[in-house]
Amino acid sequence: MNKRDAIGISAFQAAGDLRGFVISGRWPDTTREWAELLAMTVRVASLPGVLSTSTVFGVREEVPDDPQPTAVGLVLAEGPVMGDFALPAGRFSDRQPPALIMLHPPSETRSSLPECEGSASGCVLLPGLPYLGLDHRAAWVEAEADGTVVSMVSRVGIDPINDPDTAVLAMLLAS
After folding, report:
1. How many domains does the chain have?
2. Residue-number span of the structural domain to which 8 is assigned
3. Do 64 and 7 form a contact (C-beta atoms < 8 A)?
4. Which phi and psi (to 5°) does residue 97 adopt?
5. 78 φ, ψ to 5°?
6. pLDDT one-digit tens code per residue, 62-72
7. Distances (CA, A) of 3 to 8, 25, 41, 160
8. What global pTM score does this model have?
9. Neighbour count for residue 110 (Cβ, 10 Å)
10. What is the pLDDT of residues 83-128, one digit of tens each?
11. Helix (H) or strand (E) holding 138
């Protein structure tokens, strides 16, 4: 892979909250590359005070105002999973994003290993069209605040209902 093939990611905040990421270079092409992008977002979410609650982020193939020349799109915070401002089912039925990401801060992550207490986690769902032979894909990542990836799993051909994160993301996509 040469430098111009790289995928860049830059986080941005507003009012102290993580509001999203600018993607530059190119979009991920494979489930593995989406898992690697997810790992970077989870590492950011693991930093103390960056993310206050479990939040859904939508992928948008549009660039910010006055973008850098290599910007290809945005991953924007759409809203929390629970609470007064929780996203309603069918939120993305008009404009289905190519991917949805859910990030959980350390306060809302149950660590997979006892020695990794305080890690953050996340999931990316790449919706498919199973009736056309295009499987749903997903990846899950858990990372500590020092950047250590504790767990990374990716799957093709998933049934979204079999995992809480993918079930919530699929529900948001459904109308």
Report:
1. 1
2. 3-173
3. no
4. -75, 155
5. -95, -30
6. 887 877 888 99
7. 10, 9, 21, 35
8. 0.90
9. 9
10. 888 988 878 878 889 999 999 999 888 888 778 888 999 999 998 7
11. strand 137-143
